[in-house]
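Submission checklist for the structure archive. All mandatory fields must be present; incomplete records are returned to the submitter.

[x] Identifier: Hypoxanthine phosphoribosyltransferase
[x] Organism: Cohnella boryungensis
[x] Residue count: 179
[x] Sequence attached
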Amino acid sequence: MHNDIQEVLYSQEAIHQKVTELGAAISRDYEGRNPLVICVLKGAFIFMADLSKNISIPIELDFMAVSSYGNSTRSSGEVKIVKDLDVSVDGRDVLIVEDIIDSGLTLSYLIDVLERRNALSVNVVALFDKPGRRTVDLNADYTGFTIPDAFVVGYGLDYAEKYRNLPYVGVLKPEIYSS
Ligand SMILES: O=P(O)(O)OC[C@H]1O[C@H](OP(=O)(O)OP(=O)(O)O)[C@H](O)[C@@H]1O
Ligand SMILES: [Mg+2]
C-alpha cells in the first residue's frame, strides 16, 4: 500500500494540528447554537471522527453517503445519495464535514438539497481543497489545506475504495490509476 504513494503531502502530525485548529474555530463560531454536524461518507469518516473530538460545544452528528467518483479519478458528474440523513434539517444550523472539494459538484448538490429542506444555515468544513479543478463556483467556510491538482489518497480518501486507511495523505503514483 505505501509503495503506491509517490509523495507524502501531509503527515499524521500535520493533519492532527490542522484538525485541532479547525475544531477550535468551529467551537468558537457555533457557541450557543447546537449545530447538526453532517459527515459526508465515505471519504470524511476519519476527519469527522477526529474533528468531532476537537469540538468543545454540544453538537449532534448525522451521516450521509454520497458518491460520484466510483473507480475513477474524475467525477462522473452524477452525484448519488447512497444513504440519506436520519434526522430533519428543518430550522437547524447545519455544518457539512467533507474530506475534499475537487470539482465542487458534490457539495453544490448537497448544499442545494439541504437548503431546499429548510436548513437555517448551511456551512462547510473541508480538510482539503483543490481549487484548480473547480467546475462550479464554491468555497468552504473552513478549509484545512489547499492542495495542488493531483489525485490524493489516505486519511479516508480512496482510489477505487483502497488507501482510505493510510494515516497520512499522499499523491498516488499515476501508474496505479493509468495502468
Ligand atoms: O468536489 P467533487 O469533485 O465532487 O469531489 C469531492 C467528493 O468526491 C469524493 O467522494 P466520492 O464520490 O469518491 O465518494 P467516497 O467519499 O465514498 O469516496 C470525496 O470524498 C468528496 O465527497
Ligand atoms: Mg471516493
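[x] Structure attached
Curator remark: Residues 43, 69, 158 surround magnesium ion (ligand 2) (CB under 6 Å). The first helix runs from residue 12 to 29.
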